[in-house]
DNA sequence: TCGTCACATAATAAAATGCTTATATGGTTG
DNA sequence: CAACCATATAAGCATTTTATTATGTGACGA
């Protein structure tokens, strides 16, 4: 196991990515289970390209991995990321994150996916 | 003791404020000890007004309190803030935060203050 | 009382952010 | 092959962020 190398600037980059309600929710949801892109377009009240661009930021930071299957793209937190271990701990600090995630996941109502 | 009320949007606001290297460092330093504004102008390679504007954001979120004494303004994390309990936990998640804070505090080299 | 010190505020400019609509892409299905 | 579906990318735009320089303010000390 390699030693994690991270300076405070990289930590700030992670906080910055999490400093948006939509992305924080996405991360918290993926912390619970693998999610399809369509889950996110279902959950959040914004256009599909807006969701896609938030995902791009998560990808650029190396936070997520994808698995394509038929029509759908399934997203997970990237186990190889140096941030991977931090994420559950950061989410755990947020009061009522569990309830919020449960609510969001319940509102992903596609039957033909996920 | 009142129950903390916080939705995910407010948590995102906190992450956003911490999503800047300078402010994250300031918060981590104040998590260690009370700091003077001059500590920050010493530590960070930017103008005094830039430091002042970062502090304004921390104030606007209600994250800090001040104590004036002679020339100097001493800053602490605000115990009344709903975020107060979260901060040490969030800082604890950042690898090597301790070493970084120690380095920064060591570089605050005023002898007539703090 | 006048200059100085720590700090805040104003004004401004450059860059980044986050949305929108329109369009492209690549696998799927008929 | 052709239409379709999930998703990405491009382009445009308003807003926000973050720095800089210049200036204001109020406490302190000679």
UniProtKB/TrEMBL annotation, chains A, B:
GO molecular function: DNA binding; DNA-binding transcription factor activity
The keyword DNA-binding appears for this protein: yes
SMART domains given in the database record: HTH_ARSR (SM00418)
Designated name of the protein: Winged helix-turn-helix transcriptional regulator
Pfam families: HTH_5
Keywords, alphabetical: DNA-binding, Transcription, Transcription regulation
Superkingdom field: Bacteria
PROSITE patterns attached to this UniProt entry: HTH_ARSR_2
Domain HTH arsR-type: from-to ranges: 4-102
Lineage: Bacteria, Bacillati, Bacillota, Bacilli, Bacillales
InterPro entries: ArsR-like_HTH (IPR011991), HTH_ArsR_DNA-bd_dom (IPR001845), HTH_MetalResp_TranReg (IPR051081), WH-like_DNA-bd_sf (IPR036388), WH_DNA-bd_sf (IPR036390)
NCBIfam families membership: HTH_metalloreg
Protein's UniProt keywords contain Signal: no
């Amino acid at each position: 196991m390699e030693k994690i190398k991270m300076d405070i600037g990289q930590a700030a980059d992670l906080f910055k990515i999490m400093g948006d309600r939509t992305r924080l929710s996405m991360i918290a949801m993926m912390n619970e289970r693998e999610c399809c892109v369509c889950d996110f377009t279902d959950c959040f009240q914004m256009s599909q390209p807006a969701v896609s661009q938030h995902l791009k930021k998560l990808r650029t930071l190396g936070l997520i991995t994808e698995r394509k299957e038929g029509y759908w793209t399934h997203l997970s937190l990237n186990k190889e990321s140096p941030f991977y271990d931090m994420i559950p701990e950061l989410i755990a600090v947020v009061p009522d994150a569990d309830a919020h995630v449960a609510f969001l996941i319940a509102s992903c109502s596609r039957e033909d996916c996920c």
